[in-house]
Amino acid sequence: MTRHLLDIDDLTPSELEAVLDLAVDEYPPHVLANRGVALVFQKPSARTRSSSELAVFQLGGHPVTIRADEVGIDERESAEDVARTLAQYHSVIGARVVDHAVLVRMAAVSSVPVVNLLSDQAHPLQAIGDLLTLRSHWGALAGHRLAWIGDANNVARSLVLACAMTGVDVTMATPASHRLDKATADEVASLGGNLVQTTSLEEAVKEAEAVYTDVWVSMGQEGESVERLAAFAPYQVSGPLMALAAPGAVFLHCLPAHRGEEVAADVVDGPASLVWPQAANRLRAMRGLLLWLFS
Fold first, then answer.
1. Domain assignment present for 286
2. Which of 206, 203, 200, 197 is CA-nearest to residue 243?
3. For residue 208, what are the domain limits?
4. Helix H segments across the chain?
5. Nearest to 258 by CA among 291, 204, 221, 294
6. Whether the model pTM is above 0.85
7. Same domain for 151 and 245?
8. Catalytic residues
9. Which residues pair with 5 in a beta bridge?
10. Which of 45, 50, 129, 136 could share a disulfide with 281, CB 3.0–4.6 Å?
11. Is residue 12 part of a domain?
């Protein structure tokens, strides 16, 4: 059966641990020798493109990056036909898409693994990179507490599922109209996770050993910027807020960061920030997943 990664819960907890273990191998075997990997970008990216291409190269494969205008998914040809065609040449299809349903349709017909490089619903490789960052800092994951501040977006959704699978407790401070949906919260519970959603920043960061935020207006949401900036204005991660977290708490952000909006400059650029190791771990995340798929 062809395995796909459309969200982090396509892995079992033990498989996720295996991916994390494989990801830290700095001299991995060339499991992709003489293989191609298609990287389709409906949305542009800096970290995802660079980390994905280099991961494929380090595993001995050949990455082929394909821009939106080169395939025209559901304009020039259907998502299904794009997947069927690329599967004739490549051993993996990675896709960064606007609508998660496009990935589901591609996976339904693809004879090779389809990997979500980002969708409006999920960002599983970011979650893997985040876990690598926290595991490297803490030494282990289970029993620690993370606070998410701001929008319960695609990054947050994959992260809370990943945390549930690895024993990390999560508290989320979001405006009531921007919290996780009930289905995701129920899934966290079914995975044995401990998730608390609140509107209080102070409640969220209390005893948190890591504080995470993301931009308030993501790519494609520019038309909602006025409403979003107003709704999230009280949710900036500032120095005083970090001071309310557990002693030694670290700061995470998936980038790009908007200093002065979701995070103060002295936090993202301060000594508690792990954003650059976190960015570096995007390469290890992709490498670990591909190693797991082909080992």
1. no
2. 206
3. 126-278
4. 13-23, 47-58, 68-71, 79-86, 100-109, 124-138, 154-166, 182-190, 201-205, 225-232, 239-243, 265-268, 275-294
5. 221
6. yes
7. yes
8. 96, 123, 126, 214, 254, 282
9. 115
10. 129
11. no
